[in-house]
Amino acid sequence: MSQARQWQDALPLPEFLSQVADRGGIPVGDLVDDLNDQADLGIDVDGVVYHDRGIRVPGYDATFVHEPAGARGRPAFSLEVNTVGPRNCWAKFDDTLSWDVYLLRTQGLAALAWLSDEEYQVEEAAEFDSKEQAILAGRFSFGVFLYTGEEWTEQIDRITATTAPAYLQGEDGTVYQPSTQSEFYQYVDSTPTSFRTSGGNAPDYLGILELELTIE
Prior knowledge:
Layout: E1 9-12, H1 16-23, E2 25-27, H2 28-39, E3 47-52, E4 55-71, E5 74-83, E6 87-94, E7 99-106, E8 109-116, H3 117-124, H4 131-136, E9 142-147, H5 149-160, E10 167-169, E11 175-176, H6 181-187, H7 192-197, E12 208-215
Antiparallel strand pairs: 1-7, 2-4, 3-4, 3-9, 4-5, 4-10, 5-6, 6-12, 7-8, 8-9, 10-11
């Protein structure tokens, strides 16, 4: 899940994944530019942070990619992060699930979030009447946070102070910053290969098939 943050509004993007399939790939920066042109949202982006169940990976941009060959024998889409430094981060998602993508906004921050029907039913339906209510309450496992200015500089400084592939942030906002890749994988109790092939030790209903997190 994301950290406990209340979002002010959620803009559904119902055609987004179909557009990714049609175009082959869409960078987050291009998507935000298009939305700014269409709706005059005024969102600036200097960099992004991929959020995966509390794992955070800063990048200069990230690109949603159609995966015609799929993964584990299933149709898929992926997110590839243009990371800060010599890090590698990509995630593949099961495109046979029913996904909804939203642009979220609150004071001083925007994000993209995607949530499957399956995750909603298992984890959120008992508490929230709709996916949108869950999303507004910050209840999503996957997202891309959009940063600018000093807050983006802080993200760069945080990750470049380490040789870890990512840092972690709890629901209460507490940050854990491993110093090395080995320390990161000790914390998540896995290895790079096992983590990649299990989607970061994810249950099937989350819909993440593979998750690569390494540093060269």
